[in-house]
Amino acid sequence: MRGRFSLIMGKEWAIALVVALALIVAILSLPNILEPVAKSMVESAGPYWLLAVLAVGVIHGLKPDEHTWPITVSYSLMQRNVRGVVASTSVFAGALTLVWTLMSALVGQLMNLLNINALEPYVDLIVGLTMVGVAAYLVFGNHEEHGDVKTADYKLIWVHGLAAAFGGDFFIVLILTVTIAPAITTGISFMVGLMFGLGSLAAQMLVVLLIYKGVIRGVRDWSIMAKAGRIALGILGIFMITLGLLAMHCGCV
């Protein structure tokens, strides 16, 4: 009995480590090219700026990003079916979109109040600590009832989304809004953040569903995959905390 338990635990940790390490390598190996690409696309789009912003959002969602993939993928692994994956990803990306929409609507005021670059390491720390805390709560909190593993609370995913929205991607939306604002009326500036968020949501959904289906096809045991998702969330949370501490230590803000 103990040997079987150890084998199951070994599978959970193996899956979690593979997923977490794959995401970490992807994030660290891809240079941050979105900012110049985004500005160039929007400046050359002219009257088609809405489509350009949507396209930039799609690129953002497809790009391995420390403020999206570690959270959306980890939570997706905890879901019992595709419907749950769609719901969890939508809640997270919806929170991002809400913050970005409000920011683009208030860009003039925010420009004078915030140094967005200075906020990023603190956002990494907050998001990372939240991820580790949620992972610990789910792993050690005995959340099985009659053998059924509970999925992550959507309220927690929403909070993660609100916090993560103030990371580096917040700065991208800020640049897009500042670039476009002179050519549009202030009443529709909120469309910049909205279209960016919707594009990112669509791309994130595609990425997360592909990863979910790939993992579930290989594991064939949802309870093991759900527990692996909890562990991966904790590992990636530690990665986020490390990024934040390194950024503050080297003064890269």
How would the blueprint of this fold be written?
Layout: H1 2-29, H2 34-45, H3 49-62, H4 69-77, H5 82-105, H6 107-113, H7 116-140, E1 144-145, E2 148-149, H8 154-164, H9 168-180, H10 190-219, H11 222-250
Antiparallel strand pairs: 1-2
Helix pairs in contact: 1-11, 2-3, 2-9, 3-10, 4-5, 4-10, 4-11, 5-8, 5-10, 7-8, 7-11
Descriptive account of the structure:
By secondary structure, the protein is mostly helical. It has one domain (2-250). Helix content is 80%, strand content 2%. The protein contains 11 helices and 2 strands. The protein has helices at residues 2-29, 34-45, 49-62, 69-77, 82-105, 107-113, 116-140, 154-164, 168-180, 190-219, 222-250; strands spanning 144-145, 148-149. A two-stranded antiparallel sheet has the order 1-2. A hairpin with a 2-residue loop joins strand 1 (144-145) and strand 2 (148-149). Helix 2 (34-45) runs parallel beside helix 9 (168-180) and helix 4 (69-77) runs antiparallel to helix 5. The chain is globular. The N and C termini lie far apart (52 Å). Residues 1-5 have low confidence and may be disordered.
Q: Strand order of the main beta sheet, please? A: 1-2
Q: Which regions contain 5 or more consecutive residues with pLDDT less than 50? A: 1-5
Radius of gyration: 19 Å
| Helical proportion, percent range | over 70%
Per DSSP, the total helix count is 11
Mean pLDDT: 82
Strand content: under 5%
**Distance, first to last CA:** 52 Å
**Quantity of strands, as a count:** 2
Supply the helix-strand structural class: mainly alpha
